[in-house]
Amino acid sequence: QPLAVPINMNPCWSVDFMSDALMDGRRFRLFNVVDDFNREALAVEVDLNIPAHRVVRVLERLSAERGYPAFIRSDNGPELTAAVLSEWAEQHGVILDFIQPG
Prior knowledge:
Blueprint: E1 12-21, E2 27-35, E3 41-47, H1 52-66, E4 71-74, H2 83-91, E5 95-98
Parallel strand pairs: 1-4, 4-5
Antiparallel strand pairs: 1-2, 2-3
């Protein structure tokens, strides 16, 4: 079923991870947050490791600047299904909307 398209900024963010490798072979990860209305990149967090508590820290920083979204869309990767993220979302009335990977 097609994803609903927001009619204004901020009610729905999409989050996802990307990864690549440095010249020396070490892998690094990027955590991306995008506003679904205008496709604005709200955050790109880069590090060798980005655990769930760091994901929450990024989302909390964005929410302090822009307000909490109603929904956050993501696939069901381990950092995005962790208890710490679920608890944060519940505390702030944010619905985690898990979509099919790919």
